[in-house]
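> example.struct
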């Protein structure tokens, strides 16, 4: 039987891909065509009914990778190795033995294989019924362990345990701060973002100066050699009343924050710790009111410091430093919600769609009225000077946060004064989005076809059909009396069908192009509306004013990106001079506290920071600051805090000196106070009269010296000789040869 032509095979494969979304191998396609007597339509129908008709004739490599029993039916019921399932019974188990591997089947037991299997099953049943024995899994709690071979695990069912409660520190020499490098706070065992937040805020002028709270400075701040590791500095206090106790606890937050800011400004250490701050009583007992769903140390600190600082200086406006207030008017009733750390839910990002920070804020502020049609008016009543955000990607398959993090953004579109414009913008966007959806549905209806519950590309089907009607050769043509080729009736019908198919193909192609153009125009209009108050423009009254700049990112509790001030180039050993302030010029740094432990610090570009924020992890801390917060000059630290940092620096220098010295050589004490150990004795002590605890060494030493002195009974050491110094102590001098 002749083989099908390559053109027939190609057409079969194209039609198979259209109707079944699968394409068999060319030999299989050839077999279908031959068995259908070279009729492509019948071949395609046969393939649709049973695509695997000829699959069994292929070579099966799996047959050569079976177990040694060969999978033969004669061994059915005789397992090579029996592992019982977990039993749900909850009995006591007396001494017994678990089921073991049965004898390997061989030719001598072929006839009795089934009987052996039944015997083994009876034995196991007897053991389980009599002794309530489980095999394979100990315990019937339902929790079973095995290899992690599933494609997906629900993170809500994970159980996390704390492995360590401390973060290890590197050697002292590795903890020294190099000139020009910023200091930072090392991670907490709780893996919270508080250390990263403190490190970032210390480089924002408004936060830096507020944390110093120079109107309420202690005359001295105490000292603790291990404070840099997190050991609190305790002050003796006498507490009589409950309100005084709370006042002192609030003051502890203020004073510890002052220490941290001064430390970050002028320390010679590479890093410190916020653990003493997190251990403060007021910090631990801080109630969470404004951030439901998130009770981390970041929110606790911002709330605790705001409350304590406002009590000391109510007129300073510290409550607006970190706290924003969202407002919602529903059917005439107004409600407000303050928050110091925004924790938005990234919903669109979980669907693989590209999202920006504006999209994220739009979702969370206008989520109850996304299309602007409801009687709901949501806005931000007041915006904090420093805007803290923690974003999480709920999609566990994502490789990063997958959000476009801008270097700056404008908050005007969310403020109460622009709420009517924002609501109108959402309403217009909803109408355009409906138009886009209708056009997409129409495009899908025209561009696709359905056939026997299968879908395919309509234009592709038309092109395949056109190829089938194109003339291939002149075999079907007839020759006229004058010798010219004449078209047969079939050629004429094929030519007409081809032209009709080409016309239909052109109409569909033109219609799809028009739909695409209209969709692109609608999409541009949608984006133009979404651009409301995102960037300044020349139109009067429409330019945004409240700009926020990115000041820090933490993609992991151990990784922080911060825009740090250039550290002062103090010479090592110098004390802090508050008259020489730090330079205000800033650059981006990446700091990673590795688990080895090892510290890596490197300057990075802003583009690298934005990329890391979007792709480095599925969670990130973002800190933005207003223009006002960044335009203020940095204030110098008070003198009492200068002394605190100087003392800590001296303790660190002592630690460095001790680390550079070789370890002392310790020996057992002498037997009594009059005895002198050999290894502790100088030459003068050794040759002085008195008892010695090394008779053998004394004899050899005295004998050698006596021999060298007298010159008798032994060989002299060349021209070496024994001399006495001014104190009468003997010493040996070796003459040069």
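> example.seq
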């Amino acid at each position: 039987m002749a083989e099908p032509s390559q053109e027939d095979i190609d057409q079969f494969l194209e039609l198979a891909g259209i109707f079944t979304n699968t394409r068999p191998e060319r030999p299989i396609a050839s077999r279908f065509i031959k068995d259908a007597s070279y009729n492509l339509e019948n071949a395609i129908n046969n393939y649709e009914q049973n695509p695997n008709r000829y699959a069994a004739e292929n070579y099966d490599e799996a047959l050569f990778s079976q177990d040694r029993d060969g999978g033969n039916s004669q061994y059915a019921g005789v397992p090579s190795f029996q592992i019982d399932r977990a039993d749900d019974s909850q009995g006591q188990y007396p001494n017994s033995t678990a089921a073991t591997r049965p004898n390997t089947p061989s030719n001598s037991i072929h006839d009795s294989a089934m009987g052996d299997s039944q015997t083994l099953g009876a034995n196991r049943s007897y053991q389980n019924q009599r002794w309530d024995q489980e095999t394979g899994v100990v315990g019937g709690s339902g929790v079973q362990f095995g290899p992690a071979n599933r494609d997906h695990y629900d993170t809500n069912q994970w159980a996390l345990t704390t492995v360590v409660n401390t973060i290890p520190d590197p050697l002292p020499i590795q903890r020294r701060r190099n000139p020009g490098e910023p200091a930072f706070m090392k991670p907490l065992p709780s893996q919270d973002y508080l250390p990263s937040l403190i490190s970032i805020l210390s480089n924002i002028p408004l936060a830096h100066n507020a944390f110093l709270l120079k109107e309420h400075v202690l005359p001295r701040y105490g000292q603790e050699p291990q404070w840099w590791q997190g050991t609190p500095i305790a002050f003796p206090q006498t507490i009589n009343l409950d309100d005084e106790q709370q006042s002192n606890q609030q003051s502890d937050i203020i004073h510890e924050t002052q220490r941290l800011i001064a430390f970050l400004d002028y320390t010679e250490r590479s890093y410190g710790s916020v653990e003493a701050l997190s251990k403060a009583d007021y910090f631990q007992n801080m109630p969470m009111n404004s951030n439901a769903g998130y009770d981390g140390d970041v929110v606790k600190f911002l709330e605790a410091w705001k409350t304590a600082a406002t009590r000391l200086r109510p007129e300073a406006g510290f409550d607006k430093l970190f706290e924003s207030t969202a407002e919602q008017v529903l059917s005439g009733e107004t409600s407000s919600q303050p928050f110091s750390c925004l924790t938005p839910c990234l919903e669109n990002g979980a669907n693989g769609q590209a999202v920006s920070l504006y999209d994220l804020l739009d979702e969370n502020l206008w989520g109850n009225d996304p299309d602007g049609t409801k009687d709901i008016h949501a806005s931000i009543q007041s915006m904090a000077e420093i805007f803290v955000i923690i974003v999480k990607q709920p999609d566990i398959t994502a490789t990063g946060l997958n959000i476009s993090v801008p270097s700056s953004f404008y908050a005007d579109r969310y403020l109460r004064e622009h709420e009517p414009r924002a609501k109108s913008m959402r309403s217009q966007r909803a109408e355009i989005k409906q138009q886009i959806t209708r056009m997409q549905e129409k495009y899908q209806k025209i561009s696709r076809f359905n056939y026997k519950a299968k879908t395919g590309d309509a234009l592709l089907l038309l092109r395949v059909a056109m190829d089938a009607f194109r003339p291939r050769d002149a075999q079907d043509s007839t020759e006229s009396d004058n010798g010219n080729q004449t078209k047969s009736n079939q050629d004429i019908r094929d030519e007409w069908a081809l032209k009709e198919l080409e016309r239909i193909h052109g109409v569909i192609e033109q219609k799809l192009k028009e739909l695409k153009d209209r969709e692109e125009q609608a999409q541009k209009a949608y984006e133009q509306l979404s651009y409301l108050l995102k960037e300044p423009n020349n139109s009067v009254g429409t330019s945004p004013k409240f700009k926020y700049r990115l000041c820090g990112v933490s993609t992991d509790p151990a990784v922080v990106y911060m825009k740090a001030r250039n550290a002062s180039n103090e010479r090592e050993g110098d004390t802090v001079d508050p008259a020489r302030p730090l330079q205000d010029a800033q650059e981006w740094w990446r700091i990673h506290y590795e688990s080895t432990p090892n510290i890596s610090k490197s300057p990075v570009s802003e583009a690298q920071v934005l990329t890391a924020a979007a792709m480095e992890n599925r969670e990130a801390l973002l800190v933005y600051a207003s223009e006002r917060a960044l335009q203020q000059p940095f204030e110098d630290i008070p003198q009492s805090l200068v002394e605190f940092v100087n003392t800590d620096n001296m303790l660190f220098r002592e630690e460095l000196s001790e680390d550079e010295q070789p370890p002392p050589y310790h020996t057992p004490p002498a037997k009594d106070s009059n005895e002198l150990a050999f290894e502790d004795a100088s030459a003068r002590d050794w040759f002085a009269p008195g008892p010695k605890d090394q008779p053998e060494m004394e004899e050899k030493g005295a004998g050698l010296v006596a021999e060298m002195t007298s010159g008798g009974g032994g060989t002299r050491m060349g021209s070496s000789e024994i001399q006495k110094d001014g104190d009468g102590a003997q010493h040996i001098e070796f003459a040069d040869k």
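> remarks
The chain has a mean pLDDT of 77.
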